[in-house]
Design brief:
The complex is a heterodimer of chains A (about 260) and B (about 375). Chain A has helices at about 1-15, 20-30, 30-45, 55-70, 80-85, 90-95, 100-130, 135-165, 170-185, 195-205, 210-220, 225-260. Chain A is mainly alpha-helical and about 260 residues long. Chain A has one domain (about 1-260). In chain B, strand 8 (about 260-265) and strand 9 (about 270-275) form a beta hairpin. Classes of the chains: A mainly alpha (about 260), B alpha/beta (about 375).
Chain lengths: ~260, ~375
């Protein structure tokens, strides 16, 4: 399975590089929306800060957010969903490997090669906006682990939504709903601590904090040890739920595909 | 082989008939008693399709109440294929050929009946099965477009867990047979249709599948490339002993590759037997070509049979097979016949009839 992932990963790189302009634009998608909120909040914070956050802390938060957003984001609505809609999944189902491995390799390929765009962009923004980090190497390390778990969670949820294409032609409508909730509850509009209680609780109870905000909070040093442990527990719980949800959807979806058309 | 009386109304084929076909002259039982790699019994596939009238009103109505209709794509068909056979699976568009192939490949779940390929139930999609079969769809490429064909083959090497030696040997062989050398470094999307089909075939055969489902492998290709692909399929079958089930709308494919054909129409099995005998069942008539001594003012031959063509003093009549001897005798007795030939219709015409809309008459023909 690892070798299969590896060969798909390699070919996905080649595939992405074949469309360099499109690839560049997609990569910018992880940066541009947070950049807007970086500009908004750093302006609002001004010289005196707001709600205990200085301008530099907002910058640190959003620059971290951009990297985590790129690494954890889901692209399955553009890959797996498309394959099902176009019937290309038939060819994948004929192979003796789970088509999800290719989808995962595509996700990983996009993210690793996309760092070529994301890292220089974030470094340039760091020079321009001057972030203030108050964190420790330990928290950053934990944040990296949380980022990987967030990526896994977003992949599973994104893949599950993409698999809805087995039933509905336009699974992108379901994806849009997920994206709106992610936009509101993942710490993009504002760091979650600044949101009203109801929204913050919703973000924590639903998977959205685990999908994006939690790793950013860790890397920027916002969390205590206990809060970090609770955050990992929530991430783990959502991963288990998302895994079973994906497996259930896959099995039912393939059964339906086999029933209605192929 | 089914005899004329074996088919009840030309539609229902029983299990007994299936086994008798397996041991028929056209589907010889293998000497070592190897079970048939493909066995289809009473296979049925029903789709539920959404439909609505044209127009805005119907469109709005379908938002609230959707109408569905059951479409029987494959209706109670049974046949088996012996090891190493190449069987042509024929029928007009919408006959159920691709649906059947997809059930054999594990992409579709049968509504009822059973399918067994290499001892597996295909829809379970077990690795052991998928590693020994391949399906090539002429109208749907399976290679990744953005990478060179050579890279796509490397993907299959890993996916099918081929050793370096096996991969090199298979690729070398396929490269030589299909002349792939210049294509391996080209992106798949920049290949011509024919080049792409050669690569699709190579990718599907790298793991040397023992069962091969080919759905219109030559569709859209020019005649030279069609011949090349055809030759390759025959050669692959000969070298590996693979069993091949092939659908094609090109008569030349069927004539060149398939001694046995299975014909379905509207989901029902119409014919299963030797290609040479297809005409007996589908087109039970003879062609009588008559040349008369007095060619200046030839009499009308309408009374002897259906006039198919008349030129240069020669008239070709279509006459029912069972009436051919009597009509021949009448012609010789009543007219100044200078020359007379009696022939079976060309197989191309017979297959053409299967594919044409007039094939709706097939039931009647088979019943007779």
């Amino acid at each position: 399975m690892i070798s299969t992932f590896g060969i798909y990963f390699t070919t996905q790189w080649a595939s992405f590089l074949a469309y360099r302009v499109v690839f560049f634009l997609y990569s910018m998608w992880a940066i541009l929306p947070p950049l807007i909120y970086l500009a908004v909040w750093s302006t609002v914070a001004g010289a005196g800060g707001i709600a205990g956050w200085s301008k530099g802390e907002f910058v640190a938060y959003y620059l971290t957010f951009m990297v985590v957003n790129h690494l954890a984001g889901s692209i399955e609505i553009h890959t797996a969903s498309w394959e099902i809609q176009q019937g290309e999944i038939s060819g994948r189902l004929l192979l003796p490997v789970h088509p999800g491995i290719r989808t995962l390799a595509s996700n990983a390929g996009f993210k690793t090669i996309g760092m070529v765009v994301v890292v220089p962009s974030v470094l340039l923004l760091a020079v321009l906006f001057r972030p203030e980090f108050h964190t420790t190497p330990g928290m950053v390390a934990l944040g990296v682990v949380a980022t990987l778990l967030a990526a896994a969670l977003q992949f599973l949820i994104g893949y599950t939504i993409a698999l809805l294409s087995f039933w509905i032609t336009r699974a992108d409508a379901a994806d849009q709903l997920n994206m709106v909730l992610l936009f509101l509850l993942s710490g993009q509009v504002a760091p979650l601590v600044l949101l009203p209680d109801a929204l913050r609780i919703a973000a924590t109870v639903l998977p959205y904090r685990s999908m994006l905000s939690f790793p950013v909070e860790l890397i920027t040093g916002q969390l205590s040890g206990t809060a970090a442990a609770i955050g990992f527990a929530l991430q783990g719980a959502w991963l288990v739920v998302a895994w079973f949800l994906m497996r259930f959807t896959w099995r039912r979806g393939v059964r339906r595909y086999a029933a209605v058309g192929g | 082989m089914l005899g004329p009386d074996d088919t009840t109304r030309g539609q229902r084929v029983t299990r007994t008939e299936t086994s008798s076909r397996t041991t028929s002259p056209t589907t010889p039982a293998p000497p070592d008693g190897t079970p048939p790699p493909i066995v289809i019994s009473n296979l049925t596939k029903v789709y539920r399709v959404h439909e609505r009238e044209a127009g805005l009103r119907a469109s709005l109505g379908s938002l609230i109440r959707r109408k569905y209709r059951d479409v029987c794509a494959v209706n109670d068909i049974s046949f088996s294929v012996s090891p190493g056979e190449i069987v042509g699976f024929l029928g007009p568009n919408g006959a159920g050929k691709t649906t059947t192939l997809k059930m054999l490949a594990g992409l579709l779940h049968p509504t009822s009946g059973s399918v067994s390929v290499l001892g597996h139930e295909p829809f379970k999609r077990e690795r052991a099965y998928l590693s020994r079969m391949a399906m090539v769809m002429g109208n749907k490429g399976q290679l990744q477009w953005d990478i060179p064909a050579g890279d796509a083959f490397l993907v299959n090497k890993v996916v099918y867990k081929l050793s370096d030696a096996d991969f090199r040997a298979a690729l070398g062989e396929l490269t030589e047979l299909l002349d792939l050398g210049p294509l391996l470094k080209k992106q798949v999307r920049s290949l011509s249709l024919g080049e792409r089909m050669k690569c699709e075939l190579a990718a599907a055969l790298l793991h040397r599948p023992m069962v091969l489902f080919l759905d219109e492998p030559t569709i859209g290709l020019d005649v030279t490339m069609q011949a090349r692909i055809r030759h390759f399929i025959a050669d692959y079958n000969k070298r590996t002993g693979a069993t091949v089930l092939l659908t094609s709308h090109y008569m030349a494919d069927v004539v060149a590759l398939c001694k046995r054909v299975v014909v379905i129409h509207e989901g029902r099995l119409l014919f299963d037997g030797a290609l040479a005998q297809l005409s007996d069942r589908i087109a039970p008539f003879k062609l009588l070509t008559v040349k008369l001594h007095d060619a200046e003012s030839p009499p009308s031959l309408d009374g002897y049979g259906e006039v198919q063509s008349s030129e240069d003093g020669q008239t070709t009549l279509r006459v029912r097979r069972d009436q051919a001897p009597a009509v021949t005798a009448r012609l010789l007795a009543e007219l100044p016949v200078a020359d007379l030939t009696v022939e079976d219709p060309p197989i191309e015409d017979v297959i053409d009839q299967v594919f044409s809309n007039s094939s709706l008459d097939l039931y009647g023909t088979v019943k007779s």
